[in-house]
Amino acid sequence: MTDIYSKAQSAADFIHARTPLLPSIGVILGSGLGNFATHVKDATRIPYADIPNFPRSTVQGHSGHLVLGTIAGVTVAVMQGRVHAYEGYPISEVTFPTRVLGLLGCKTLIVTNAAGGIRTTLQQGSLVAISDHINLTGTNAALGPNEPRFAMVPGAGQRFFDMSSAYSLKLRTLAIEEAERQEFLLTEGVYLAVLGPSFETPAEIRAFRTLGADLVGMSTVHEVIVARHMGLEVLGLSLVTNMASGVLDQQINHEEVMETGRYAEKQFTSLLTALIPQIAIEQLVAAKIKL
Q1: Catalytic, out of 254, 256, 259, 282
Q2: Please, which residues bridge with residue 27 across strands?
Q3: CATH of domain 4-290
Q4: 167 counts as catalytic
Q5: Set 87, 204, 259, 282: catalytic member
Q6: Would you call 24 a catalytic residue per the annotation?
Q7: pLDDT given for residue 254 in this prediction
Q8: Domain map of the chain by residue range?
Q9: Catalytic residue among 11, 37, 85, 114
Q10: Are 47 and 138 in contact (CB under 8 A)?
Q11: Which residue has the higher pLDDT, 165 or 247?
Q12: Is 86 a residue of the active site?
């Protein structure tokens, strides 16, 4: 049986053969946010189905393309959609694309999602910078044999690795300051992940609020765990597409998630387009300091 590192390297080699670009920033787009990929310049679009060992998205709003090109002159690799454990994929496949992004050369991962708002001060359609997460999916992406070859920076790839700063404070600060320049409020919040695919019950949401969660969703945490294992810096952004069960007296549906994503697209695109070159500068500064 081929090991996960060899499979990921095979996928990365295939992608490198399709484009000479070496992305420094990877972006994973959540439900309703996939249109950001259309803003990538000089783009090479590769269907997930063409990439060796790559899992395929099956959910509406996740078109299933890897887009490599530039945003504001910065080389990026943008995942237009992700796969989830609730689709029947094992966690090793859910996180496989994150492994590939690291092997492509990405030093920073921007992970986005559609989330339900638990904190009552949040508004539908607002963006939230993830400050931390609570993993209630019942599993962990680092299960199984440790693979130190995935270390993308010195000191990464350890069996036991730190998650105290899973979401970069430096990158959150950049995002919050940029949102202020663009005259909208980007608050911070704790994201709680469940397995799905059913939406949560009102009793579960009350319990999650007691635990300190501000947002709830069905993705992201395992990608972040893998990214941190590899040594990638992470910026997490949630779009509050609906208020969680019991917060408002109304039912929740996936169509509402998609519609809110379309509504917030302009603000989301403007924020990311401005942030990406700032993150690239931070990467250069960090590289010089290490030298």
Answers
A1: 254
A2: 78, 110
A3: 3.40.50.1580
A4: no
A5: 87
A6: no
A7: 56
A8: 4-290
A9: 114
A10: no
A11: 165
A12: yes
